[in-house]
Structures are given as C-alpha cells and as structure tokens.
C-alpha cells in the first residue's frame, strides 16, 4: 500500500534520505516478460499479431518466449527478494485471463497470477497489479478495438474478473498503463499494435480508454478490499518550447493537450480541455463522447502513477510536421492529430540507447507541475529508467555505470521535488529484467537484471546491486 511518507527536515547528513515509508520497487509488463504465448488457454493479443507481421518489429522478434517469466516466476520473485524490493509492479495479460475479451475467466490463467501474488506476499513484497499494459485480445481488435465503445465495456467486465480473483490480496491496482501509447501510437502513427494509422480513430481510442478507466475503477471499488488503492499510470510528457516565442509556446500548449490533458482532463477534472477540442475540430466533432461518459471517466483516485524518461521539446513550424523526432518511433503518419504545425527537437546532452536525452530536471519540473495542478493527489513514479548497450564480460559480470548515473540523477530530482512540497510516495525502476522492448524487439536492454536470451540466465547488473542498497536504506548516495 502506498502510504503517506513521513517527511524529515533536510540536514547536511540526511540531504538525500528519502521519507520514511517511501515505497521502492521495480516493474515489468506481461507481454514483455511472460512468454508462454499459447499455453493454458491464452490466445493472441494485438501484440502477438503485430509482432508476427513482417517489418513491424526489429529482427522479427516476438514475445512468444520473452524472458519466460511464466515458467521462471519463482526464480524471479526470489531475485526480487534478494534485491530487497518492497514492491513489484506487474501487469495482467487480458488474453490469458479472458482469451476472447468476453465471457468467464480461464482459471489456469488466473492461477498464474494467484501464485505470483502469494509468492510475493510470502517474501514481503507488495504486489501492484496493472490491468492493461497494451495486450488487447485480438478478437476485440477484430471487432473494432479501442476506437469502439464496446471495448471499454468489455474492459470493465475483465476488471471485475481480475478483482474477484485477486482483490482479497492485492491492495494496489492500476487500471491502464500509458493510454497515450495505446491510442496514439497504436491507432495514429502505427508504430505500436495494432498498427493502424487513422487520426480520428486515435482520438476515439483515447476517449474510450478514458471511459474504460472510469468503468474499471468502479468495478474495482465494488470488489477489492476496503483498504485497497486504485490508480492510473500516465506517461505525462514534460513539454518545453524550443524558444520563448509565442509560436513555440503555442506549439507546447498544443502538444500538452494531446499528450497529457486529453487524459488528465476527463480522468481528473471531468472534462476535455476546450483548446484540445478546438485544435482537433477539423478532424472530428467529438460526437463519440456520449452523455454521462465524462462523469463515468472522472472517478476518485488514491494516487497518480507517473512514467518519465525524457523531456519533449517542440517549436512552431510551417506545417511540414517533423514528428519523427518525438522519440516515439519512425512513421510517415503522425501520432499528433491536429498538430501538423509542430516540430519536435532532440534535447541537448547525453542520450540513452533509445536516443532519449538524459535530463532529470524534466522529472523535477513535471512533479512540481502535477503537484500544483492536482494538489490533493499523491504521486508515484511508476516507471523511470534507461536502456544502454549492456553486455556480460568474460567473468560474467555486467557493469552499467551509465544506468547508475541515470537513476541517481533522477532520484535526486525526486528527492528535491519532495523537499519542495511534492507528495511523491514511491519509485519503480523500469525494468526489473531485460525484455521484449516492443517494436525494438530484444535490441534494447532496460533491465536492472541482464537476461541471456538463449538460456534465460539472469545476471543482476551493477545497477541492480546499487539500487538494492538504495531500496534497503532509503538513502541516495552521492556521485
């Protein structure tokens, strides 16, 4: 459970000591780690279909085996305990629990998660369950996918099945992970599953994800234990204008609406921002928003999950639409409906293997903004981390000083934000394991634990040992 952290006064010898009760964890996602893609009743998700489509995923990689977490669950839980993690954020695979997206649950699928939760609790590790991390059952996509209202209704039914099975033991729930990616990369630019490229479908998907979130919150509240906490995780973009010009400021406003307020508006304020509706009016009249939808989407939350990796820098342009520098993959189709006159720019400085700028100040600024915009809503960093070109040396060790520096810098930013008044209650390192990195396949390694893919062998990297000490002590060492 994510509880209010007890703040202590800053002092020279405790300047980087995190508050008592701060939650330390790591995270994964079902399709990226589980494997067992056709076992115990699981049917294809949109990512199974997408990964099998030639040219979609680097090297033709799929998540059929991934890191084989489905069969190596106990080994992985023991590894988490060895590292001293206080929490593990994982996602449930919808097609493993409800293969067609309709009807009763498959008990063998639920049993996997029951055993996972039991083993976590036995080790003193808090399970944090995410209902949706992008693996929509393919049958629901065949029926129209997230652009259709029925998908939101099916999601609420699935949430109820998961809560009935796990709600007595799981005390922290997340409805959706990064719905921006599901809507705009999946249906706008096509660089994520299901690979569609329709700007109106992307906006419709965003709305039905908002509705699905609200319906799922209600389904969870009716079934989980009274002390459970319910949240959503958003990849809030920290958007910066390239210059101080009015045009660049308006470009930043426009992207902030499409990236952030399209979700925070309905979920946290009960309304879409007027500027978003105006910016996209040439594409749609938003008539797919029905009476009562925004009331359904706007449900009380116990905290907001925040995923952050790098800032977003934009400027006004002449309409050429240089969206390919937005860090979200290459496509001739933009994930930014109604933003053709916005260009994206690579921030200066060091980059990760993803080409993303390393800039902890963006995380600090983002936390301060969210605290000002939603002062009564606690925050949890549900993903933060970096991919680097890791390898095992001849002695079988994996040294990754760049990742340690990345995490140290971002934890320092979190610590400073807390000192300056942000109610941040936890941090989850992405990712526990090297894994299937979506359209990049197995070419990008985010894990604190190295995975030798041919054998499945796990090797904790130097960053895992470093993070373990931080998690055990709550103290961030200096550089």
UniProtKB/TrEMBL annotation:
The keyword Hydrolase appears for this protein: yes
A single BP term in Gene Ontology: carbohydrate catabolic process
PROSITE patterns: GLYCOSYL_HYDROL_F1_1 (PS00572), GLYCOSYL_HYDROL_F1_2 (PS00653)
Keyword hit for 4Fe-4S: no
GO MF annotations, alphabetized: beta-glucosidase activity
Region annotated Disordered, chain positions: 317-344
Catalytic reaction equation(s): Hydrolysis of terminal, non-reducing beta-D-glucosyl residues with release of beta-D-glucose
Cross-referenced Gene3D superfamilies: Glycosidases (3.20.20.80)
Cellular component GO terms held in the UniProt record: cytosol
Amino acids binding substrate: 32, 133, 177, 309, 430, 437-438
Keywords assigned: Carbohydrate metabolism, Cellulose degradation, Glycosidase, Hydrolase, Polysaccharide degradation
Residue numbers annotated as active site: 178, 383
TM spans (from-to): none
NCBIfam families: BGL (TIGR03356)
Protein family (similarity comment): Belongs to the glycosyl hydrolase 1 family.
Official protein name in the record: Beta-glucosidase
Organism the protein comes from: Streptomyces coelicolor (strain ATCC BAA-471 / A3(2) / M145)
